[in-house]
Design a protein that fits this description.
Elements lengths: L3 H27 L3 H12 L2 H13 L4 H23 L13 H24 L1 H35 L1
Helix pairs in contact: 1-2, 1-3, 1-5, 1-6, 2-4, 3-4, 4-5, 5-6
């Protein structure tokens, strides 16, 4: 089977790509690039391939239970994301007045999957764990930028009335 060190490095590398993709999604939203965001959805969904493959390799290698448990939530989130944004082809409603249950589940899975990835990094090494925590907070910063942009636009529209 594949070397555990290589698998761990590929998981961490895939996690950093995952965070970078989320940053792009939030920046697309902040700058109202809906078409770019929608074009990006299938690319984001392709992250399922490395995460599922590496999880299976961890399983076949007899890796410790921690690697299997912390690798599973991101797969669940990415499958839900694939269904929620790509298969149903719903136009994303980012700020509904009343949040549908699907959006609530989506956000919970996003956070649980991201936090589990960070744990995976710490299982491998302190340096990888810290790198993933930093990536996670950069992603949250991009999300905050998007939220701030949205709130400014909403306030400007409200003031026009």
């Amino acid at each position: 089977m594949m070397d555990e060190f290589l698998i761990d490095n590929l998981v961490v590398f895939s996690a950093i790509i995952y965070y970078a993709f989320l940053c792009l999604v939030y920046l697309f939203r902040a700058y109202e690039r809906d078409k770019l965001e929608l074009m990006f959805v299938p690319i984001f969904s392709l992250l399922l391939v490395p995460f599922v493959t590496l999880w299976i390799l961890n399983l076949l290698n007899g890796s410790d239970i921690g690697r299997l448990i912390t690798g599973l939530p991101i797969i669940i989130y990415l499958v839900y994301d694939l269904w929620y944004r790509l298969i149903t082809k719903k136009k994303p409603q980012h700020h509904p007045d009343r949040w549908p249950i699907g959006l609530i589940v989506y956000l919970i899975l996003l956070q649980v999957g991201s936090i589990a990835l960070n744990w995976y990094g710490f299982l491998v090494s302190q340096a990888y764990g810290r790198a993933l925590i930093i990536s996670y907070f950069v992603m949250l910063g991009c999300f905050g930028f998007y939220q701030n942009s949205f709130n400014k636009k909403k306030k400007a529209i409200k003031n026009e009335w």
